[in-house]
Amino acid sequence: MYPNLYYAFKDLFGLEIPVLKIFQTFGFFVAVAFLAAAYVLTNELKRREKLGWLQGVPEKVIIGQGASQSEIIANALLGFLLGFKILGLFFQWSTASQDLQGYIMSTQGSLLAGVILGVAMGWYKYNSKKKTAKAKPEEKIIQVMPHQRVPDFTVMAAVAGLIGAKIFHNLENWNDFVQDPIGSLISFSGLTFYGGLIVASIVIINYARKKKINIKHLVDSAAPALMLAYGIGRMGCHFAGDGDWGIYNSAYASDSTGKVVKVAPAAFNSVVQKNANFFLQQYPSVDHIPHAAFEKPAALGFLPDWFFAYGYPHNVVKEGVQMTGCDGQYCKVLPVAVYPTPLYEIIACIGLFLVLWAIRKKITVPGVIFGIYLILNGLERFFIEKIRVNTKYDIFGFHPTQAEIISALMVIGGFVFIWYCRKNNTTATAVS
Known about the structure:
By secondary structure, the protein is mainly alpha-helical. Helices cover 55% and strands 6% of the residues.
């Protein structure tokens, strides 16, 4: 596993570049997911604009205006923050590199570097605007197309999605939140996808209504992008080892170096008893540990063992037992291998993205593509929950997880939304 890009480059290329410790693997893949989704969304919006399904909105802009005081101050503040933290990191590398997350969330930094970069960026904003400023600024009406608002959508999705993901995760893991509320809120791990999706959707749809963008065509355009982003985001979960894995596969164990080894069914209890201290931190009793034995079928012998069970060595959440011969922050491995559910979701969601991308031109009723997305995503997540570790609720004798409840509602909502869209579709549109 690669907690940050330093570990990835060291393992894959044999290069030790200490500065790469700044870039968390999970965060890197989340950034890639946003960029990939923005690219796909932009292309699909452009296609629908060419077909006349989406139109631009006239907006007034001022040409030749100098930088406002608020723009200069905002640029200066951004420069100060970057200088204080990022440049300060190089001046305090010996201590900051030991705990980068702690450094970023602390008051440590370089005040001098912050002031210098803040002044420089404030001046740059003022000077760049001054070069294009006119003695008398002009008002101009331009058509702003939906695809030109994708940067706005992306920023809103990032901010609202992070807030929603944190809220839903802490609601799902309330006991952990109560024990350490500040740590839970600022932690780089612990994000619930559906929470982010719900909150970001509310914010973006509200924004789109104000900008007079057809909501059905917008969500149809977003459906493939959302599925792709989810798949890439799960790469971050898997390669960082952020704890978002499945139940234990008791047919396998992890040795002290992190390698997965096949064990006899009876050996599971032996491994559990040997590592009782670890298991009792998470479960009230070693007799109630969720597990299911499943050996690699002979027909799938070409697949590696870690496809069915993985110990997540060097995981970013530092969960497990100490690995032999390992020094540093990330030296833990799960004593019993788990089902690598993020890997399964990567494969499923990339495949479902290709399905949505393939059918998007064949279905012309606005809203139906998004309804299909809700059904596919809901089904995928509902069934993967069967082998994932999550908090269960007690509802009239049923014990679903938060994700199972939301995914079931997504499937039902998808069918209802398709019915509604088909019933209220009154215009025939051409296929591109």
